[in-house]
Amino acid sequence: MLKVNEYFEGNAKSISFQTATLPATVGVISPGEYEFGTTKKETMTVVSGALTVLLPGMDTWMTYAAGESFEIAGQASFKAKSDIDTAYLCTYE
Amino acid sequence: MLKVNEYFEGNAKSISFQTATLPATVGVISPGEYEFGTTKKETMTVVSGALTVLLPGMDTWMTYAAGESFEIAGQASFKAKSDIDTAYLCTYE
Questions:
Q1: Which CATH code of 2.60.120.10, 3.40.190.10, 3.30.300.20, 2.40.40.10 fits the domain covering B3-92?
Q2: Residue A1 has pLDDT above 90, yes or no
Q3: Which of A22, B6, B51, B63 has a CA 20 to 30 Å removed from the CA of B34?
């Protein structure tokens, strides 16, 4: 059974699944600014929209558009903001 | 509020959102074979996994891997099957 996850009072939702090799989610982030925490290392790929992120240890916000990816270490937190609904694929290692 | 949709007794789930130009969903289809119906014209892009589809009026199944897209006319039905969890982006025109 596919599990649905909800964050930030429903402003971000995702569906958990299994790729051929890794656990993953696809999800949508509504416009706003959020702080996410990681457990495992995450590779996030923007599928639609654009996400502007402040990665751990960085002092510059970077914007990732559809088709672009970034990685976040495990046991870290990062900030992400978007002006439009943004869909993403996330794999966990 | 992001809306979650459920099909085929929970074997397919999606999240509705709005791209810059079109209504859209991201979703996951569990392994199996399903028949989907369309209302509007759909453009479906595989995001993870692979989907083998029998499009309306075709007699050959075609397989689409991650990054590949196909279109389905509105008011049509098509069959889709997958051996692994498959994530997709769908836009509606």
A1: 2.60.120.10
A2: no
A3: A22
